[in-house]
Amino acid sequence: MALTTACNQTSKTESANSPAAANKPASTAMLDKKPGWWKETVVYQLYPRSFQDSNGDGVGDLKGIVRRLDYLKSIGVGTVWLNPIYASPNDDNGYDISDYREIMPEFGTMADFDALLKGMHARGIKLVMDLVVNHSSDEHAWFKSARASRTSPYRDYYYWWPAEKGTPPARFSTFDVKHDAWQYDAPTKSYYLHYFSKKQPDLNWNNPKLRQEVHNIMRFWLDKGIDGFRMDAFQFVAKDPSFPPIPGVTQATFTNAYNHGPRLHDYLKEINQEVLSKYNVMSVAEGAGRNTTEAMLFVDPARKELDMTYTFEGTGVGSDADTYKLTDLKRVFTHWDSAFAQKGWQAIDLGNHDQPRMVSKFGDDRPAFRAASAKLLNTFLLTMRGTPYCYNGDELGMTNSTFNGIADYRDVAARNAYQLLKQQGGDQAAFFHLLARFSRDNSRTPFQWDATANAGFTTGTPWLKVNPNYVAINQAAEEKDSSSVLNHFRQAIALRKDHPVLVHGQYQLLDAANPHIYAYTRTLGAEKVLVVLNFSSAARTWSLPNGLKPTSASWLNNYPTLKMDSQLALQPWQAVVVKLQ
Ligand code: GLC
Ligand code: CA
């Protein structure tokens, strides 16, 4: 069942800088432009559709974000990654782009975008855009032309299988109602390929013209002054156009079956050489191949491809069950850390717009434990090695939503999975149970600003239901409460900024087999800190390993006190960062 993107499922296996300084606007002066700045930044992922509506149409927009820029500055994030804001018919919420150089009218105009970028830079915040080029929309001018005639100059921007050659070799689509990645198109009696929905035809990267188009699109945005790209589904772009058989692909194996096609790294090297190396920007790939060895190919600095990558294995822990094992989470994060211990760099995240809310999945979102467990998870994100990616709303401890039936869901993945279920007469109760836990709409509900109608998100009807718990969980309330999840998040960010050990320090897991406590040290030169996280809703004690001598200084604690002698007495979901001698 395609409840989430298959490319976000658990993998079962394991800059150069030549600044665009010449045309740098004066307002960027306070931006950190040191080489490697992207290692030290904290990325805030902002889902524009749900952040702030400014005109009452129920859809978040760029002017709305501008209104909230002081808030972004106040929390201390260094970089914002904006989900797609380009022109799109919104089959997959902007991941189906019909014009890469236009802003989606619902979100505003290019002037609004320019104002947003300027406003961010004026506050010392960088902006990273989503680059969605595994596929375009079927409403893109390229595809409209390509599907109209076999001799269109844009025909080879996409993959076609002429019907006279018979049925094309099976390819699995993660969003398609029938999971068939080939869609028959009558005007030219051919099938086209779509790994995602049938409104997202895959672009043909074997075609150098297409690659140049993408380079030009990247330059267009970089010349406006943006600070990098998050490269959507990029690991899927490379395909063998002869389509040799790849049998037996399912939702569970989709990612690993298709994520390492021929010439993938040639395309990345070309992008680096032609575009990225000419700007002081960051690049991050969604997905990292089948294992850590393949992930290194994306980010080994000597290869000159990308700066960092993120894997689905961490967020994928426990993705098909009601619970997860902490020992699995520890094993996965430790394994991925060790892969980049000598070179390369990774992104650290526990949630995004394709995942459930992190506190509902990895914490305990019941009222008694929600705040403590959200603080613990933020402590984790901000004390690991790698660049933290914090998803909007997680700084408040926003939770999974409650929806009543399929009509409340908006996600193409959920809706198409429901179609399939109905056709097959599947178990509805089990389906809705899974959806409630894992649907991507859980994390896409409107941002909870205050306790007024619709959480202050819109004066109209929100495009997706606001979580009813906004009355209690909202930014305005947390702002006033010094012990809120929000204020703890601010402290954790400030701590990371002040202490390079939390960014660059070596990571060492302690007590690997402990099923409730996740403990590790970070060491940089003479500086050493201990992070202890009680991943459980019960009080626990934890004995300090021999040789570890804490100072009395606790750098961060999500409870007012900490009992510590040879043992730590930890409250439910207590999370502490302690300086060691
Ligand atoms: C990525 C995006 C997801 C989208 C898919 C297709 O996984 O994060 O939201 O549906 O790519 O573009
Ligand atoms: Ca709006």
TrEMBL record:
<dbReference type="InterPro" id="IPR045857">
    <property type="entry name" value="O16G_dom_2"/>
</dbReference>
<dbReference type="GO" id="GO:0009313">
    <property type="term" value="P:oligosaccharide catabolic process"/>
</dbReference>
<dbReference type="GO" id="GO:0004556">
    <property type="term" value="F:alpha-amylase activity"/>
</dbReference>
<feature type="compositionally biased region" description="Low complexity">
    <location>
        <begin position="15"/>
        <end position="25"/>
    </location>
</feature>
<dbReference type="InterPro" id="IPR017853">
    <property type="entry name" value="GH"/>
</dbReference>
<keyword id="KW-0326">Glycosidase</keyword>
<dbReference type="InterPro" id="IPR013780">
    <property type="entry name" value="Glyco_hydro_b"/>
</dbReference>
<dbReference type="Pfam" id="PF00128">
    <property type="entry name" value="Alpha-amylase"/>
</dbReference>
<comment type="similarity">
    <text>Belongs to the glycosyl hydrolase 13 family.</text>
</comment>
<keyword id="KW-0378">Hydrolase</keyword>
<dbReference type="InterPro" id="IPR006047">
    <property type="entry name" value="GH13_cat_dom"/>
</dbReference>
<dbReference type="Pfam" id="PF16657">
    <property type="entry name" value="Malt_amylase_C"/>
</dbReference>
<feature type="region of interest" description="Disordered">
    <location>
        <begin position="1"/>
        <end position="25"/>
    </location>
</feature>
<dbReference type="InterPro" id="IPR032091">
    <property type="entry name" value="Malt_amylase-like_C"/>
</dbReference>
<protein>
    <submittedName>
        <fullName>Alpha-glucosidase</fullName>
    </submittedName>
</protein>
<feature type="domain" description="Glycosyl hydrolase family 13 catalytic">
    <location>
        <begin position="45"/>
        <end position="444"/>
    </location>
</feature>
<feature type="compositionally biased region" description="Polar residues">
    <location>
        <begin position="1"/>
        <end position="14"/>
    </location>
</feature>
